[in-house]
Specification:
4 helices, 7 strands
Length: about 170
Amino acid sequence: MALEFSLDPPVGPVLRDGILGLWTDVSNADGAVGFVPPVSPEDVRPELVRHLVAMAEGRARLLVGRDADGEVAAAAFLTYNAHRLMRHWIWLYTVMVHPRHQGRGYGRQLLAAAADAARGMSGISAIRLTCRGGAGLERFYASCGYKEVGRVPDAIRVSEGDYRDDITMLLPLV
């Protein structure tokens, strides 16, 4: 079954809480979305607020995937570059599929929907994202058309003694 995606949906309390729950659940399932488990919604909320502020200021856009019940099952943020020499590509941040939906192809659907959204944005010719090494994410993104264009060894400290590479991936859209 396919998710139903929407770009820039109106963010009210139900959607905000759905994204907050998604982000919390993904983090607690050891998803590489900026936190290390365990986290609570209160831990995640300030980061979500930062993303919502960027959306309100026109610096970011929200892509949401809903399951057959209308629940938030996947989400990602497409963020514009502020630097005038880099406005031809966007960042894809906080790419998430709820753990109960993983293994069903929803991650591929989310990335395809993000690429379609980016293609609809004036002047955008590529998507960049970063991912945490050690979880095989770079292989997944590569299987979706992204190529590794940079790697900083041990740039992410997950915990004392657990360092991971920060991997930059690129998807050309043209």
